[in-house]
Design brief:
Layout (H helix, E strand, L loop, with lengths): L1 E9 L4 H14 L3 E8 L7 E9 L12 E6 L2 H7 L3 E10 L6 H4 L17 E3 L1 H8 L5 H11 L5 H11 L5 H12 L2
Parallel strand pairs: 1-4, 4-5, 5-6
Antiparallel strand pairs: 1-3, 2-3
Helix pairs in contact: 1-5, 1-6, 4-5, 4-7, 5-7, 6-7
């Protein structure tokens, strides 16, 4: 049994911290884990994709089209772009935030309308509002990890322990609150 998870977002949204929390949590559960990061122009707001695969034995970190059990999307358009990777019956969890890509900012394209309605059975979350409630808008990533964690068989306390050992101490309280808000969303 191998689980394939794609974390997609825009540079600066904390996708890499989210993948570290996920990876460390499943390692602590005794699984073999492979993580692969694909950066676009992340420093300029470009796409960032991270693949996390875990199971009894994992040979490759890459998730091919139609293989993702879960897509964790930090932004609507990135969720839509990742849709071909979702397996039949897979879950998509998406932050309802819109971040204009460079072609939209420069006026060469328009941001697509009604993306959330084009995502099959998506769990759409206002993670930005929950992050604000936790105390920092940058905690969107941990809010979304909390939402995803609820759908796993890994106990809540195990996620919390991993967050305590993965997040820098000065950001710990905010991130624990963000996780709790996401988990209970």
């Amino acid at each position: 049994m191998t689980k394939n998870i794609m974390i997609v977002g825009v540079g600066g949204q904390g996708t890499l911290l989210a993948s570290r929390i996920l990876g460390n949590t499943v390692i602590n559960e005794g699984y073999d884990v492979k993580v692969s990061e694909v950066h676009g122009m992340s420093q300029r707001g470009g796409s960032v994709v991270t693949y996390v695969k875990y199971g009894d034995k994992v040979y490759s970190p890459i998730v091919d089209k139609g293989e993702a059990d879960i897509i964790l999307a930090f932004e609507l358009l990135e969720a839509y772009r990742a849709l071909p990777y979702l397996k039949k019956g897979g879950k998509i969890i998406v932050n309802n935030q819109k971040i204009d890509p460079m072609p939209v900012i420069s006026g060469l394209a328009k941001y697509p309308e009604n993306i959330a309605e084009k995502l099959p059975d998506a769990t759409v979350v206002d993670a930005l509002s929950l992050a604000k409630e936790a105390g920092n808008i940058k905690a969107v990533n941990v809010v979304l990890i909390g939402v995803m964690a609820k759908s796993t068989d890994i106990p809540y306390e195990n996620w919390v322990e991993t967050i305590k050992t993965t997040v820098p101490p000065k950001f710990l309280d905010v991130n624990l609150k963000a996780f709790e808000l996401g988990y209970n969303a």
